[in-house]
C-alpha cells in the first residue's frame, strides 16, 4: 500500500487519490448516528486511554462500532461497502465532532495499518486521525440466557423516562441508584426510589411466545444512568427490544444495536409497604395547569427543593409557598373530580415537577392521606394501575 | 384601605376581593417584556440591595419600570390603567420569573403602602411580594445634549452585533473593553478591538436634519457589555433610536425605552495604522461553507484558540490544522473570485468564527498580505467599505 502521507497535504484530497486508497465507504448520517449511540457509553473521564476511543471494524454484517466504559457497552452496525478488512480505535470526542459535520453524505475512510492512521474523506474534507491499538480494546460482553422480555423500543423508552429519574444520585446506597426490574407473572415492574419519592411502572409482558419460558433472572437492578441511555438509544424504535439477562449483566438488543449494562448487586428495599392502601382525598387535575402553577409558586418555594404546600379537598387544589424576606405565593387549579376530605401537605416542588414533566397524561389523579402521609399521582383513566408516583411529605417547618 | 392580609390566603384570589383593592391593571406580556428589558441593567451580584430591585411607578405616561447597576440604566413605560398613584421596588429576579409565567393576560396589582407589600394577581394566582423603599432607588440619569445621531433600531442592533464581540473582556486596559463611536462628517464609525482582532463598522448618519448641528461629543467609548444590551433591547425596532451624549454618559431613546450608559474614559488606540493599505491575495468565499469548514477543522486546532492555517491564492481557500497526538485536518472551499499571490497564514479559529457568525453576508471577501500580516474580511459587494474585520496572524509555532 502506498504511503498516505500526502493525503493530509494541500491538493491531496482529490477524487482520484482518495479512490485509490479507499478502504470503506458509508453514509455520513448513518455513521454519525452510530457514533452518537456508542459514544453514550464512552466516559470522558477515563483512566484507561483505550476506553476514550470508539472501535470501528469492518465485518460481514456491516461496519461495527463499539463504545464502552466497562459498565455500559454499546455495539451497533451500519451499512458499509469495503474492500479491505480493518479495525481501528479512534478518539470518540474528535470522531463525534468531525463526523456529524462532514460536508457530503458520502464518507470514505482509508486506513494505513503500518502508521495506524485513519483518513476520513468527505467532499473536500480530509482528516487524518491516529488510531489506538484495536487489540487492546475490551471484548464486547456476551450475555447468555433466554429472551426474557420483549417490548417495543418506544414503550421501553417511555417506561424508563417515567421511572429512572426517581433513582438516587448519591452512591451511599448503590442499590438505590438503580431501577428495579421485576418479573411477576405476565407483568414486568420498573421501580426507582431515592427514599424521598418513588416511581413504579407496570408493563404487560404476556402475549410474547417466549415469555412463558422460565426467565434466567426474576429480578434485577439496572443502573439508572445506563438505563436512561438505553431509553435514549431505543427511543424512536417501534421495533421490539429483546432483553436478555444473566446474574451480573443485562443486554438490550434492538435491530442493529446491542447495549449491555452490568447489574447492581444488593437487595432493593421493600417499596410496597410505603404505598398507601387507600386515600382520604382524591382529585383529578389537568397536568399542564398544575405544572404551570407549581413552577410559578416554586419561585417563592422554601429551601433548595422549592418546598410548596398543596391543599386538597375543595373545588380546587391550592398551591402556596412562603419565601422569608421575599413574599408569599398562592394559586388554585380547578379539579375535574373531587372526593374525600380537606387536607394540606408540604412537598418538594422539584419532585412534583419531575413527574409532571415525565408523563404525557392530559389529566392525573392526585391522592392524599394526610399531612404526614405520601401524596400519590396516578393515571386518571382506566389504566390507573399502570403507573404510580409517590412523594414523601416535608413534615418540619414547611 | 383594608388589610391585604387575606389576599395570600386560600380562597382570597376571587374576582370581587381583588377588584376592591385593585391599584393598577396591565397586560402580562407587556409587563413581562418591560421587566425583561430593565432587568438587563440589574446585576445579580450587587452589594447595594436596592439595585437588585426594579422600580415600578404609576405615571401619566404609563407604568414606569427602571433597572440600574449604576453603570447601565434602563427605563421603560408600558400601558396601564390605575386608580391610586404608587411606587414600589420589587426584587428583579423573582419579579421576572413570576410575571412571564402568569396564567392570564390581565394582571392586577394592589399595593399596601403601610406594609410595603405588592399583591400581583392573574387568574387564580396571587403573589404577595415585599417592596424595598422607593425613595432609596437611584435617580434615573439625565443626559443633556443635542440629538447626536439617529438610526433605525434594527440597524443599530446589527452594527453593535458586528463590532461589540471584538472588544477585550479583561479589564487591564479599560478603554479596550468598549466600542469606539466616532463622528466623522456624515458618517459614524463603530470600532472595537482586543488587539488580536478588530471590527469596524461605518454607518451613514447624514440625511438626518439634526445631524448638521454641532454634536456635543465627537467621539466616545461605550462599554461593550452595555452596548450589547442596547442592541438586544432595540433589536426588533424599525423605529429610529435617538442617541444623545454628554462627556460622561450616552443615552439611547427608542419609543418608550431609554437606556443610559456611562462612557469609558481613555484614549482609544490609533487603530487605523494596523489596517493594511492593500493586499497580496484577495478572494471571495461563501460565508456558510467557510464557516462549516473552519468549525470542522477547528476540532483539531492547536491550543485553546483552535489555531488553524489558511492557504490563499489557488482555486480554493484551504483550511488545515494539526493536533499533536490526535491527527491532522485539511479542507478546501471553492472561491468565486481570486486575485493575487499564493500564501499561508495561521489564525485563531475562534476569531474567524466570531465574525462568520456575526454577519449575514452570503459571500465575503478575504484579503491577505503575507504570513505575518493581518487577514481582512469585508463585504464582497459594492458596500465593501462599510465593514472591516481584521485578524492578527499567529506567528509562533503555528
How would you describe what is shown here?
- 2 copies of one chain form a homodimer.
- Chain A has 398 residues and is an alpha+beta fold.
- Chain A has 3 domains: 5-136, DNA Polymerase III, Chain A, domain 2; 147-262, DNA Polymerase III, Chain A, domain 2 (Roll); 276-391, DNA Polymerase III, subunit A, domain 2 (DNA Polymerase III, Chain A, domain 2).
- Helix content of chain A is 17%, strand content 40%.
- In chain A, the strands form 3 sheets. Chain A has a 12-stranded antiparallel sheet. In chain A, strands 6-2-3-4-17-16-15-10 form an 8-stranded antiparallel sheet. A 5-stranded antiparallel sheet of chain A has the order 5-1-7-8-9.
- In chain A, helix 6 runs antiparallel to helix 7 (349-358).
- The termini of chain A are far apart.
- Chains A and B meet through helix 3, strand 9, helix 6, strand 20 and strand 21 of A and helix 3, strand 9, helix 6, strand 20 and strand 21 of B.
- Strand 21 of chain A pairs antiparallel with strand 9 of chain B, so a sheet runs across the interface.
Short description:
By secondary structure, the first copy, chain A, is α+β, with helices and mostly antiparallel strands.
Keyword list:
3 domains, 398 residues, 17% helix, disordered N terminus, eight-stranded antiparallel beta sheet, homodimer, 7 helices, twelve-stranded antiparallel beta sheet, alpha+beta, DNA Polymerase III, Chain A, domain 2
Amino acid at each position: 500500500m502506498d504511503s498516505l502521507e500526502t493525503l493530509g497535504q494541500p491538493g491531496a484530497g482529490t477524487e482520484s487519490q482518495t479512490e485509490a486508497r479507499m478502504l470503506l465507504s458509508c453514509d455520513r448520517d448513518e455513521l454519525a448516528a452510530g457514533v452518537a449511540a456508542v459514544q453514550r457509553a464512552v466516559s470522558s473521564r477515563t483512566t484507561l486511554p483505550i476506553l476514550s476511543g470508539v472501535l470501528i471494524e469492518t465485518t460481514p454484517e456491516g461496519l461495527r462500532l463499539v463504545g464502552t466504559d466497562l459498565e455500559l457497552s454499546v455495539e451497533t452496525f451500519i451499512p458499509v461497502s469495503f474492500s479491505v478488512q480493518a479495525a481501528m480505535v479512534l478518539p470518540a470526542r474528535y470522531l463525534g465532532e468531525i463526523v456529524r459535520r462532514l460536508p457530503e453524505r458520502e464518507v470514505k475512510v482509508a486506513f494505513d495499518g503500518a502508521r495506524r492512521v485513519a483518513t476520513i474523506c468527505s467532499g473536500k474534507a480530509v482528516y487524518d486521525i491516529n488510531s489506538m491499538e484495536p487489540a487492546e480494546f475490551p471484548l464486547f460482553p456476551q450475555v447468555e440466557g433466554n429472551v426474557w422480555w420483549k417490548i417495543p423500543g418506544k414503550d421501553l423508552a417511555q417506561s424508563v423516562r417515567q421511572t429512572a429519574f426517581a433513582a438516587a444520585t448519591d452512591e451511599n446506597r448503590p442499590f438505590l441508584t438503580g431501577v428495579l426490574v421485576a418479573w411477576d407473572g405476565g407483568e414486568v415492574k420498573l421501580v426507582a426510589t431515592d427514599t424521598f419519592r418513588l416511581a413504579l411502572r407496570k408493563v404487560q409482558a404476556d402475549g410474547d411466545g417466549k415469555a412463558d419460558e422460565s426467565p434466567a433472572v426474576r429480578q434485577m437492578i439496572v443502573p439508572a444512568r445506563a438505563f436512561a441511555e438505553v431509553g435514549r438509544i431505543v427511543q424512536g424504535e417501534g421495533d421490539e427490544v429483546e432483553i436478555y439477562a444473566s446474574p451480573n449483566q443485562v443486554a438490550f438488543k434492538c435491530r442493529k444495536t446491542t447495549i449491555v449494562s452490568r447489574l447492581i448487586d444488593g437487595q432493593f428495599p421493600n417499596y410496597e409497604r410505603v404505598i398507601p392502601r387507600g386515600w382520604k382525598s382524591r382529585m383529578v387535575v389537568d397536568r399542564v395547569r398544575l405544572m404551570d402553577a407549581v413552577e410559578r409558586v416554586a419561585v417563592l418555594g422554601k429551601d433548595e427543593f422549592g418546598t410548596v404546600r398543596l391543599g386538597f379537598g375543595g373545588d380546587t387544589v391550592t398551591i402556596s409557598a412562603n419565601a422569608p424576606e421575599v413574599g408569599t405565593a398562592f394559586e388554585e387549579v380547578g379539579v375535574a373530580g373531587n372526593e374525600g376530605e380537606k387536607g394540606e401537605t408540604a412537598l418538594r416542588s422539584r419532585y412534583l415537577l419531575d413527574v409532571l414533566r415525565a408523563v404525557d397524561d392530559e389529566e392525573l389523579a392526585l391522592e392524599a392521606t394526610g399531612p404526614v402521609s405520601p401524596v400519590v399521582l396516578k393515571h386518571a383513566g382506566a389504566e390507573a394501575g399502570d403507573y404510580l408516583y409517590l412523594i414523601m411529605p416535608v413534615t418540619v417547618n414547611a
